[in-house]
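Kindly inspect both lines:
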Amino acid sequence: MRYDMKRLVLVGGVVAAVAACADITSSGSSVSAAALSAALSSVPVGYGDLSSSFNGALASTGEAAGLWLGGGRERAFDRAELMGGGLQDAFAGVVPFLGKGGRHGPFGGGLGCAGTFNATTGRVTCVDTARGGVIVTRSAKYTTTAGVVQQAFDTLTTNTVNVQASAAGTITFDRAADSVAGGKRDHHWGRGRGPNGKLLGDTSTILTASTTLTSASDRTTSGLASGSTQRTVAGTSSGRESTTGTSSLGSFTASRVVGDTTSGLVIPVVTGTHSYPTAGSVIRSITATVQYAGKTAVTLSRREVVTYDGSATAKVVITENGVVKNCSRPLPRGPLTCS
């Protein structure tokens, strides 16, 4: 079975530029800055089951069952060079408003499962799902414009949806077992990270690893009822990934912390076409750390603040290890331009 180690994010906690530079370039470290930067390109497995601004894999797909192994062949940022798999389409105005009143547009709909209604909590809970050692839980609360709790999502009368989700589990990796396919070494093992398991930098081969994952999200969307002229979105997500293992350079520990906060996001309802956010902000961040026994720990942090002001351009402020860049990105699609 193949594994592709995922990324972690932290809202805040940016490392000072001087300290970060010293860690990354120290002769006592075994990991290069380029290798560690791959840790910013995705988020932990199961993050796609949560409500966040990141593009993450669903636990049910079985894709990259989740070890964080940054390095080898460096993975570039995609989706206009924003981290964590890029900015989700709903945050960029790529998702159109379809159906009567545009009810199936960005951030629309409910859980996608029949679920079980709890009259005490007023929440509908899906059956837990498990895949590759990761368990996903999801629940939602549906209310009308008058605040009346509903037992299921209604395309006409449901106005506000609060979705809470979590993903947690432990995943193990053994190179001797997991990098062999059909009795032969699979030189593509590591999903593009380089042959023969050259991960965590170009000089180390991971032999065994155990990763513990825990992530959660909480998002509220209102303005879903028929006749609404705009939708508003607010929410948070957070995740932590902790790994211990052995390698050709000895034992190591690795961690990623991931998170985002969406505040006051406003999207006008325009039936039959696309509509990008006109107000609000999204704060996204990831911190990754790797340390080999007897070596200097290497830490890399990045924080992205995306702000919408009603124009067709989102403002993006990026802080990576204390270095700030002011950028912009056209909506709904376009390259990130920085100064």
Q: What stands out?
A: The two ends are 43 Å apart (CA to CA).
